[in-house]
Amino acid sequence: MGNSDLRSLASITELPFAECTGSTVAVDAHNWLYRYLTTTVKWTNDAVYTTNDGTEVANLIGVIKGLPKFFEHELVPIFVFDGGVTELKDDEVERRREQRRDAEEQLEAAKERGDAVAAARLEARTQRLTETIQETTRELLSILDVPYIDAPAEGEAQASYMNRIGDVDYVGSEDYDTLLFGAPRTLRGITSKGHPELMDLEATLDRHDITYEQLVDVGILCGTDFNEGVHGIGPKTAIKLIHQHGDLFAVLEARGEHISHADRIRELFFDPPVTDDYTIRTDVNPDVDAAREYVVDTWEIDASEVERGFERIESSMVQTGLNDWL
Amino acid sequence: MFKAIVSASTLRDALDSVSVLVDECKIRLNEEDLSIRAVDPANVGMVDLTLDAAAFESYEADGGVIGVNLGRLEDIAGMANSGDLVHLELDEETRKLHIEMEGLSYTLALIDPDSIRQEPDIPELDLPASIVVEGAQLDRGIKAADMVSDHIALRVDEAEEAFYIEAQGDTDDVDLKLERDDLIDLTAGPANSLFSLDYLKDMNKAIPKDTEVTIDLGEEFPVKLHYEFAEGLGHVTYMLAPRIQSD
Questions:
Q1: Which chain B residues contact residue A73 at CB under 8 A?
Q2: What confidence score (pLDDT) does residue A292 get?
Q3: What's the gap in Å between the CA of B247 and the closest CA on chain A?
Q4: Contact B239 A18 (CB under 8 A)
Q5: A195 → chain B, closest CA residue
Q6: Residue B196 and residue A319: Cβ atoms within 8 Å?
């Protein structure tokens, strides 16, 4: 997902929670959930996160374990779900589906061999955001009064747009593509251990002395969700070539290379399908009892897996801050 | 310019009172005193400390600000025996703090004060009740409450002229009642607030057991805890935001 080559180019610094408390964050919901599914499923016995009839709802554990971090630091998340698949991404999506099918076959084989480690790793890769996962996540967020919106296409494009026009303070994503979507400030690892990382677009551009448009060209040369990169061009080379030739097309011409739909790929970053049809709400009042009932009773999640998360949400709701008295 | 000599125990008392809330802080090296103000990342607990120039064996400063990693500075101060004198000198050129004690010399790299979280504004609170207790009494109440719960109620009963420290757990309850005679002083007023024990325990760690602690309290208001150290030449005020009472 996205291109981790960009990490070596991005300006990334640790941002203590103290400096972002009270902020709004548009969270790339799929990216965030995917991360939780892969970690939850990796370490937990599957009886814990499936219902009696075998429906997987590990996402509910992920939501309850992840949200307290936001509440405790008075961050307001706005979850942004993916809408339809962008046409160009179809090939990539298809390729990933194939990878998953391969992983599923290998998983069966690993299980037959009794190779638990290999099976667990493969299991993580075969997780996908099923209909049930999509629906129950939205339902649980509603019960917890956490705002979410549906993007017309890419969730990270929508989240980046909301950040760019100043409607939210940060984008929350583990993906580096938010830089290419023009998000000024991306928070990474909000729900991981320790403090988050701040990925800053302006500082990234300054560091390499390039424009935002040129950064997108660098991304395309290295490869994005929408295209394979040019063979032999890594991030450093891409920067050098862009400095030398000015833009993507000049670089391609000079090297005698071709990227199909290069024009349209650029447009997808510069001007992706986004919506203005949303409102930002910061008064979040979770109904923890109803959420507990939904997760533990309705979806049969082992209470011991989520109780600590619920307690953390409850206590974050009752603790006031000194700034309330200024 | 900053050059000072201070006893290791005074330095440690000062650092401990701040490090229970934050890892890094700004230290203001004023002409008349050294001062620190900091709030924890969640904005729940605040400390405001001053240490008068007279608390030092010698003290020269002209109003600079330095940023320090408290853990590192505490480790260094921990190398001295209580009675030892610690020499501190700021090197303006290199932005390093030279620390010397009993033949041991240490150069501490400072942190850019601008990279440290801004010092908080102090809420102005008009708190109706004031209780003065010994550090040891407060410690006893907090330790007892911690056995049963993760939060603690501080309350004044105006009619009884008594101060209550109470905690309700899932199964067990704890009450510590201190009447006027048990207290050093009491100004009774309507006061009843609930606090997180996590914070209060940390603050309590830094409060000397043999000192007088003044507790200013209101109804669902932050609490202020003041005490002195370094023979009355150091002053600490903690402020802690309350929890919302559920019933």
A1: 41-42
A2: 96
A3: 12
A4: no
A5: B41
A6: yes
CB-nearest to A321 from B44, B121, B246 is B44
Residue B141 lies in a domain: yes
Please give the angle made by the CA atoms of A112, A51 and A292, to the nearest 5 degrees.
140
Q: Give the model's pLDDT for residue A319.
A: 82
The pTM (predicted TM-score) of the whole model is 0.62
Residue A112 vs residue A180, higher pLDDT: A180
Q: Are B85 and B109 part of one and the same domain?
A: yes
B169 shares a domain with B78: no
Strand partners, B107: B98
In this prediction, residue A220 has a pLDDT band, given cuts at 50, 70 and 90, of very high
Give the minimum alpha-carbon distance from A320 to chain B in angstroms, rounded to a whole number.
6
> Chain B partners of A14 at a C-beta cutoff of 8 Å?
none
Domain that holds residue B59: 2-114
Res A125: pLDDT: 45
Q: Looking at residue B15, which CATH number applies to its domain?
A: 3.10.150.10
A182 vs A122: CA distance, rounded Å? 34
pLDDT of B10 higher than 90: yes
The reply to whether B46 touches chain A by the CB within 8 Å rule is: yes
- Residues B56 and B14 placed together within one structural domain of the fold: yes
Residues of B in contact with A19 (CB under 8 A): 117
How many structural domains does chain B have? Answer: 2
pLDDT category of residue A315 using cuts at 50, 70 and 90 = confident
For residue A145, give the DSSP letter.
Answer: T
Please report the pLDDT score of residue A36 as a whole number.
78
Given this model, what pLDDT does residue B185 score? 97
Has residue B49 been placed in a domain?
yes
Q: Which two tokens stand for residue B2?
A: 């900053």
pLDDT at A2 over 80: no
Q: Please report the pLDDT score of residue A90 as a whole number.
A: 58
Does residue B120 lie within any of the structural domains?
A: no
Question: Residue A206, SS3?
Answer: helix
**CA dist., res. A252 & res. A260, Å (int):** 11
Domain final residue, candidates B45, B80, B114: B114
A44-48, A189-193, B102-106: segment of lowest average pLDDT? A44-48
| Nearest chain A Cα distance for residue B87, angstroms | 32
Number of Cα atoms under 13 Å in the Cβ half of residue A164 = 20
B103 and B139 co-located in one domain: no
Distance CA A56, CA A124 (A): 13
On whether both B160 and B95 belong to a single domain, the answer is: no
Final residue before a domain boundary, out of B90, B114, B138 = B114
Kindly state whether residues B93 and B145 are assigned to the same domain. no
Across chain B, what does the average pLDDT equal?
Answer: 94
Contacts of B222 in chain A (CB under 8 A): 322, 325
* b/e code B44-69 from CB counts within 10 Å (16+ = b): bbbbbbbbbbebbeebebeeeebbbb
| pLDDT > 70: percent of chain A | 83
| B221 lies within 8 A of chain A by CB | yes
Are residue B73 and residue B12 in the same domain, yes or no?
A: yes
Asked whether residue B245 is domain-assigned, the answer is no
Contacts with B42 from chain A: Cβ below 8 Å: 17, 21, 72-74, 319, 321
The mean pLDDT of chain A is 85
Min distance B195 CA to chain A CA atoms (Å): 8
Q: Look up the CATH number of the domain holding residue B142.
A: 3.70.10.10
